Structure prediction request, 1568 residues.
Amino acid sequence: MPRPLKLGMVGGGQGAFIGAVHRTAARLDGQFELVAGALSGTPERALASGRELGLPDDRSYPTWEAMLDGELARPVGERIDAVSIVTPNHLHYPVARAFAAAGIHVICDKPLVHTGEQASDLLRVARQSGVVFAVTFNYTGYPLIRHARDMIAAGTLGEIRKVIVEYHQDWLATNLEAHGSKQADWRTDPARSGAAGAVGDIGSHAMNLAETVTGLHLDAICADLSTFVPGRRLDDDGSVLLRFAGGARGALLCSQVEVGEENNLNLRVYGTHGGLSWSQENPNRLEYTPLGGPRQVLTRGQAYLSPAAQAATRLPAGHPEAFLEAFANIYDGAAEAIRAKQEGRAPDPLRTCPTLEDGARGVHFIEKVVQSARSDQKWTDARWSAPDTDSD
Amino acid sequence: MPRPLKLGMVGGGQGAFIGAVHRTAARLDGQFELVAGALSGTPERALASGRELGLPDDRSYPTWEAMLDGELARPVGERIDAVSIVTPNHLHYPVARAFAAAGIHVICDKPLVHTGEQASDLLRVARQSGVVFAVTFNYTGYPLIRHARDMIAAGTLGEIRKVIVEYHQDWLATNLEAHGSKQADWRTDPARSGAAGAVGDIGSHAMNLAETVTGLHLDAICADLSTFVPGRRLDDDGSVLLRFAGGARGALLCSQVEVGEENNLNLRVYGTHGGLSWSQENPNRLEYTPLGGPRQVLTRGQAYLSPAAQAATRLPAGHPEAFLEAFANIYDGAAEAIRAKQEGRAPDPLRTCPTLEDGARGVHFIEKVVQSARSDQKWTDARWSAPDTDSD
Amino acid sequence: MPRPLKLGMVGGGQGAFIGAVHRTAARLDGQFELVAGALSGTPERALASGRELGLPDDRSYPTWEAMLDGELARPVGERIDAVSIVTPNHLHYPVARAFAAAGIHVICDKPLVHTGEQASDLLRVARQSGVVFAVTFNYTGYPLIRHARDMIAAGTLGEIRKVIVEYHQDWLATNLEAHGSKQADWRTDPARSGAAGAVGDIGSHAMNLAETVTGLHLDAICADLSTFVPGRRLDDDGSVLLRFAGGARGALLCSQVEVGEENNLNLRVYGTHGGLSWSQENPNRLEYTPLGGPRQVLTRGQAYLSPAAQAATRLPAGHPEAFLEAFANIYDGAAEAIRAKQEGRAPDPLRTCPTLEDGARGVHFIEKVVQSARSDQKWTDARWSAPDTDSD
Amino acid sequence: MPRPLKLGMVGGGQGAFIGAVHRTAARLDGQFELVAGALSGTPERALASGRELGLPDDRSYPTWEAMLDGELARPVGERIDAVSIVTPNHLHYPVARAFAAAGIHVICDKPLVHTGEQASDLLRVARQSGVVFAVTFNYTGYPLIRHARDMIAAGTLGEIRKVIVEYHQDWLATNLEAHGSKQADWRTDPARSGAAGAVGDIGSHAMNLAETVTGLHLDAICADLSTFVPGRRLDDDGSVLLRFAGGARGALLCSQVEVGEENNLNLRVYGTHGGLSWSQENPNRLEYTPLGGPRQVLTRGQAYLSPAAQAATRLPAGHPEAFLEAFANIYDGAAEAIRAKQEGRAPDPLRTCPTLEDGARGVHFIEKVVQSARSDQKWTDARWSAPDTDSD
Prediction:
């Protein structure tokens, strides 16, 4: 195994949840070593958080701008290879833009940014600087999701007819944001979270999962967004009818107020020759039914799975892997892309991660859902195409 | 147990599936005795079918009109108490109308009729004649569905926010109607099946289940219908966004082309205080999660269930009951309603069955889904109110 | 369908559970018609029970002896074809012996009798009179159990190595017999229940299921029986190590005091080429894993199942069948055996039922378990061979 | 978070499975830093393995003896705090003894050693030197296992009556050891694996799990061991009847030849007031049924769980944790014990790990199972008591 890549982190200090997940994912396979951070919005907390994590004080920066300057001041080879951005959503754009422009690879949490314009701008910047830019749609890191993607790409399901993707939670079933929950506070605040609530936080995950697995992209959508908890400023529930290019149809259901649901992301895909079903809460099994045959339960770790599924696996069948390993697979894909770039070679196609384009699609989806929800018109065009960055 | 009620049957002869289900359901508890039939559209097959079932030739009629005449010619007390109508859908209306008008109680399969006008007419006729008119939305016969209904009525879930109901099948995933399947042939024929395919056959079940359990009724819907199998004349897949009076929202998903799905009807209901989940393919369990507490798995046959759930149960917990028992519970409710009418008393409130109003709501729902699917407008008004039959 | 066979019943009057199950099973397919009964041990209750069930008073007998006399006094063709014996266990022997000796076919609940000697005597009597004698080991009536049996017989699992069969309940977790439960009272009374409690009531079911599915028979056993509820006179829990002829090994676990268990009978069979798993509480699925391949979930009603599994099926896949249908399949097998005997032909091999030999094996197993539980010796010979009735 | 503890590793070089698991578990929470190793039995492979893992060559030792000498030659504060022993079983004893005697804390894989005498000797040595000695019975690291233990300790289940623990695998269903599998080769070799095969490898896990959760210890056992694969030199399947001190009874079933089983370790415990069920392959749920109430599904991450369960949790409910996190919890418990020892304080009682006593119990269990399997006597005394090390 080569030396670990040097990683800096923006956000994720004391009291944050997702920062610790990123750090564990980065560390799990020894692909990254955390060497620098601007871990909090207040300099004191940033420093304290850095010490907790064992960062030397001179690389525990009070602001992300200071970190960018400080790292660029270091000689190449000592500075960070990549930055992880794990702040509330509204900071993704300025931070990502600055580091990408400076040639530092970026691993950014989702949703990518607040607007499609910001996303297009990032695409331009990243293409110009040539950095790797990964977006942590972490659920695509599950080995059986990669197997599902490979089955569909190989035509095992025939022509895809129907895609149902759901993401159900209940943690916002009550007015947590009024009772001191930091997580709930920023996620229900349009200024920090963006134009959508549940749809932005989890609907975008669901859509990315569906598109990644099926390889299909949206044509049009019809959305109904709700805010069930009185006083909340963003949607906490949404249902979206989906029409895909090529004729497949489907539905995306998401909610953060459904009592009894923990983190129930699940995907069903039906084609002319077979059907698939997967659920994140029990991620080591993938159900596949060929037309006319019995349902099969494919399990992680088995030799009959695709090479990409096997490459994303650490443990034998029956020794369950879960959320952190899937997240680590995203970091592994980012590490491989970064090393390939550094070494001037093509990356191993079995080790992948969601890209900036995936992130931009997610932002576009959120915008279109919000637009559709406000419209009396049934169908809202949801096609996305990458900005023509060559002409810039 | 009182003597069995005398039952006639229209349809359900050789080669039919649902006729045998009705007969078994009627016989299971000894509430009904099949004594007459017009079992097929062709007189020879009708007679042969009658003999197979042990009917005397003189009560195995060549047509339903002959059966009506023949039975009315018998003295009260010997003639049939009720008729079961298990023909293809297009015959429900004339047969039901004639028997109801003649004062014979009716048990009719679903969907009730083809149009809202027909449904309103039946309501008028039935009210005038005073007959019991049951519609076999059989899935509401499951004991745990009755418990779910009772929990919600008692306020255990608080205010209902979200209702997700799904009905997934795969039996029409290929073009069966072109390959000699009698079932597929009539169900995909607008003249016999009605204006909708999957939505009429199974979507109406799903909607009835959701309304029965929650006690909520629709305000507006937004539907997308698809026909995936080339050459098919009716929808074989549908997704519908739901808005209920009072503010609850939801989605109804149904399909008959999803490979790997057998008869996957399931319902999830979420309120401010708890959530419920039930699946028809494993009907002896109902999952209930109170806000903040662990999920509970309620099982049929247990003493903690509601009186109506217990009244609908024949076997102890762990000795599974299933489809036929649930269907028989509908017949049991019809028998109780008929006997109560005959005896001039109120029926036992624990023994119920879907009514003509439920059937009319189902017809209305189908019409509105078809209308919405053809509309560019997002929301289609789906409110239903019973016709003012007094003024007729 | 031919005319129903005429059935008499001994036991199963007011307050009994299993009598109603037998009657429903007999009626479900219209194979039997209940025409006579000696339904209770007390003449008044017998008569009242008969009236409840619609029996004419002259065929509602005060005692089983009166029923036997009364029915024999009727002309052949009017008398009962068969008798169902659904009394507490201690009456099985005298009643079954008398009816079998008189040439009336017998359907008897399990465990068959109290002792191996009684079982051997019944075998002699039944062979001499030539009657059909079915024992309602009802769990072998499940279609997927028949499919499992057929898979193993066809060699799909290779050589069987391991058999694990379990039957867990909790209804006797407390001292019900001291608190007015009629069921608990006789089942925990050695005089009426026999030498074993849980092992007799449910362990014998488990053993029969394992032997029926695998076709294997026991060589030796090692048993530990427990009585957990203070004051109880029979075992309420048992664990048995199994060694089968031919080298397979296994375990049988049964209990009636395991809180949270309803009627959890399950079977796992492992061979050199594959493994099978089935659970009674969700009986419409059978899991099968071929060596090196993914687990398959076989479901009732599918065309890929064996002819016997399909013959035992009434409803399409996804429309669950359950306990009563499986029980009715036993009655259907008995009906077929009786008609074949009456018509002088071989019975349809797809329609079977457990035989008197199966019943005798069950009695032998119970005796041996009790013997082993009392022994300091590890292994107790458990081989059974049919008595040489020819020489009698 | 304090600085990571310095860890050395013996075994776990190229081609080994469990070494990587230990390293990931040690690294997951940043509690340990791997700084030294004697990773393979051959010096070349040891060095190559060390380089792969980024060890400096001067701390990648050719033998464990060299590592012990080399580390002891370093000043306190720079030498390793602890050694992980992940070799084949036969090396556990000499390595563990030497490091423990030298005052280096030990984390040793299971089964601990080959004989009870070796175990007693280790106990003596460890007590004299005062080192922390953890044994990686990793399945006790699952948060819901700790909750189950706490529920039982709190009396929620009442008096324990029955314990069923199973561990089913299929990876040795064929003669892998004859076809180049390094894992299979040593695990089926008595010289390296010990006196038992399946019972030693997985039966000991199962027994430890049952004893840890229930707090009960064995009185007597009755075992049947089998070797199904021709030519194999150790058992590959075992069934054991269990009698616990205090009156509880149970069964332990384990096998490595059951086709279709991956790593199916599961535990059921029944008491007078409730029952529990847990399965390792879906470890984020624990089923609990109180007497007379519905089954509850307790899920990892919820606030209603015990403090120890919560302390062992990294992610919110619905974000599944799995095998590696549970394994890391063992390392966390060891880290806490080591730090407490270093700091002269009592360890946090919420952060625990299996001890040398647990390891010794496991060895004793294996010995007794082998003895019982060879005996014609039904019950074999299986009580264990710690050697009286004070008098040594």
Remarks:
- Chain A touches chain B through 44 residues (CB under 8 Å).
- Residues 323-343 of chain A form the longest helix (21 residues).
